[in-house]
Amino acid sequence: MTKKLFIKTFGCAMNTRDSDHIIAELKEKANYNLTQDAKEADLIILNTCSVREKPEKKLFSEIGSYAAIKKIDAKIGICGCTASALGEEIIKKAPSVDFVLGARNVSKISSIIHKEKAVEIEINHDESNYEFCNNIESNIRALINISIGCDKKCSYCIVPFTRGKEISIPTNLILKEAKARVENGAKEIILLGQNVNNYGTRFSIPHEKINFTKLLQEVSKIDGIERIKFVSPHPLHMDDEFIEEFASNKKISKYIHMPMQSGSNAVLKDMKRGYTREWFLNRVNKIKSLCPDVGIGTDIIVAFPSEKEEDFYDTLDMVKNIEFDTMYSFIYSPRKGTLAFNMKEIDSSIANMRLEILQNLHKQILNKKAKNEINKTHRVMIENVSDKGSEGRSDNGRLIKIDGTKLSIGNFYDVVITKNENGSLFGKTI
Ligand code: 5AD
Ligand code: SF4
């Protein structure tokens, strides 16, 4: 008999991809179908994130609310990064949980559901050669893992402790998956890894020497792929060869995420990021010079424990100078086990103030940039269509709405920008 699976996914694209794999494995190997209603589910899975403290703390109240509404014999499973970080503790604190499955242990999902109170969180479990069942739907966008784990030791970051050592997935498996997805209608391929441009550093089987730039070239040879994106690259590994390929390869989307974290050399050093503000700026300038219309995104942490006022000003200065098109900003959150965990935290009123100042500055930058977009033409791939109209993304990552016209999802159109409403861009096809 078919059973029902409810799954809620937190965190990054990597977790979204893990959830895809969980759904596909359970569909094929345990006869589950997806439901959006937790009340009718036979299995409730929370695929968790632990990058900041808040979502981790909220997990237990979340478990409580699902335990209260679930069917009497329904099971609850906790997967993902918080599962890796807390392990046993989850079952001890929340006895309604039936199993805990760490990130990077996803291939065990169809066996763990039959075990009682199992905890499987081995952080260096090698799944790099495992061919997951694929929930291949005719989706125009395909997320494809190219590596798992992270070898960096950024002093604030829990990921190396939840996703283990970095290991690359063999190139032939990546290409096989990309081809299968394209045959099923994918136009856009998003290559995923914690540190994508370190690809090829370690495989768990003998493998030809290959780096990220070469992988991009191989993927772009596949007929039918129109756009290639990747998350997240590390600024340290953005060598000239990579930047030149990024700029010249027509299939590669001209949007790049460059997580800066801080604009201060002292803080970057304490964060153990491995680059200076000068290096970061040099890479940005090289990209901008080869690719003038590039969209650049970033992540910034404010109030890292050693961040003094002048360090924060250095960050503001970089943001003003670079004018990022997208900025995700966070207040530093201490994570147990990381190098920075024992450093004295900055007062929360100062942290909140810094975040607000940074975000206000970025709003001004976005408004200025949006005004400059009027009358520009972009090649847009339509991603959503509703009664109101269509929307899609330009090659450099801008979200553009085309009101009143129902265009075809997955198709490309030349769109001229006609209006900017508080930073939202509207246009019409030409
Ligand atoms: N506190 C705040 N933000 C963090 N990030 C990672 N770890 C922490 C932390 N301990 C942010 C970084 C990273 C993004 C995914 O989350 O900016 O790039
Ligand atoms: Fe993704 Fe990091 Fe959150 Fe894990 S902790 S889900 S890797 S953002």
How does this structure look, described?
- There is one protein chain.
- The N and C termini lie far apart (about 50 Å).
- The protein has 4 domains: about 5-120, Methylthiotransferase, N-terminal domain (Rossmann fold, 3-Layer(aba) Sandwich); about 140-255, Transcription Regulator spoIIAA (2-Layer Sandwich), CATH 3.30.750; about 290-370, 2-Layer Sandwich (Transcription Regulator spoIIAA), CATH 3.30.750.200; about 375-430, OB fold (Dihydrolipoamide Acetyltransferase, E2P).
- The strands form 5 sheets. It has a 6-stranded parallel sheet with strand order 2-1-3-4-5-6, with helices on both faces.
- It is α/β, with parallel strands linked by helices and about 425 residues long.
- It contains 13 helices and 19 strands.
- Bound molecules: 5'-deoxyadenosine (5AD) and iron/sulfur cluster.
Chain-wise SSE layout:
Layout: E1 3-9, H1 13-30, E2 32-34, E3 43-48, H2 53-69, E4 75-80, H3 81-86, H4 88-93, E5 99-102, H5 109-112, E6 118-120, E7 141-145, E8 147-148, H6 159-163, E9 167-168, H7 171-183, E10 188-192, H8 212-220, E11 227-231, H9 240-248, E12 255-257, H10 265-271, H11 277-290, E13 295-302, H12 309-322, E14 326-331, H13 348-373, E15 377-386, E16 389-394, E17 399-403, E18 412-421, E19 424-429
Helix pairs in contact: 8-9, 9-11, 12-13
